[in-house]
Amino acid sequence: xxxxxxxxxxxxxxxxxxxxxxxxxxxxxxxxxxxxxxxxxxxxxxxxxxxxxxxxxxxxxxxxxxxxxxxxxxxxxxxxxxxxxxxxxxxxxxxxxxxxxxxxxxxxxxxxxxxxxxxxxxxxxxxxxxxxxxxxxxxxxxxxxxxxxxxxxxxxxxxxxxxxxxxxxxxxxxxxxxxxxxxxxxxxxxxxxxxxxxxxxxxxxxxxxxxxxxxxxxxxxxxxxxxxxxxxxxxxxxxxxxxxxxxxxxxxxxxxxxxxxxxxxxxxxxxxxxxxxxxxxxxxxxxxxxxxxxxxxxxxxxxxxxxxxxxxxxxxxxxxxxxxxxxxxxxxxxxxxxxxxxxxxxxxxxxxxxxxxxxxxxxxxxxxxxxxxxxx
Length: 376
Description:
- With 376 residues, the protein is an all-alpha fold.
- The protein contains 18 helices and no strands.
- The protein has 2 domains: 2-253, Rhopdopsin 7-helix transmembrane proteins (Up-down Bundle); 263-375, Arc Repressor Mutant, subunit A (Orthogonal Bundle).
- The chain has helices at residues 2-25, 32-56, 63-71, 73-76, 79-91, 106-121, 145-152, 156-171, 186-211, 213-236, 240-255, 263-275, 287-294, 298-309, 313-331, 337-343, 349-360, 364-375.
């Protein structure tokens, strides 16, 4: 009887996640962050279903259980990146989905290919391939190399999530400082507790996969409890995500290194240095050099670039170099590519061509050919 109750609470979490996901998608004023939040919970529901089937014995006793667990692995790998994107949105003043975020989803493709290829190569691979068992068991050593890697795919998403969420917890740990206790409202602490519960439940799960599947079951119960808790909070505070974001931004502003600076004036002077004085042409130009010319600290300049201009130092400088190079390539058609590269501040021809191609989509030589033809 107790075993049945335990399994009920395990599988309930998967269904509940689906309800939360649908609720987010059905909101009248659904924003990008709501959809990200919804799909992360949808993936979490499938993840909980996978873990519940795996640890309850259905994995190696039914074909359906086996195939659900195996083919849900790529979906499970989407959960950590989606949560990273959500917390990035919360912690930043303006969220833009950048191309670099696609790299976070690379394990999805890798795991999917790994699973599909084996099913095409080995037609005899069925649900009896290997049993659900702890890694520290003697039987685990008898698994084939393919099955061992496949088994490890059940742990990788957890480690993936732990590493990302731990960084977020570290970044927002300031909300627990006594000096900030009266400045940071309760919703931020609730959000922190929920994030911490995710990390803890995943750590417990990883430990369970190594020593005992019973520990895995309790990890699922812990995750379901945390999820139920966050659902109740979101019902009490319908704009939970926005409230959490606003509080994070407020706290971030209070800790900002540029508070009191005339940021607009600094930015104006920064562009004067780059455009009028062509500071970018100095191949040894560095962040400290630029900060010194502006009369501010390195940390202040870095914050202005990242928060107000939305670019890091290298991207900011390289854009000026490429723009100047484009002008020289057309205005001085007989000048060599390498000479132009050095003239705009690049320290090597290879680096110049790589940066130029990345920012314009064509090589310097091709850009020159295309634009001189147009002029003619």
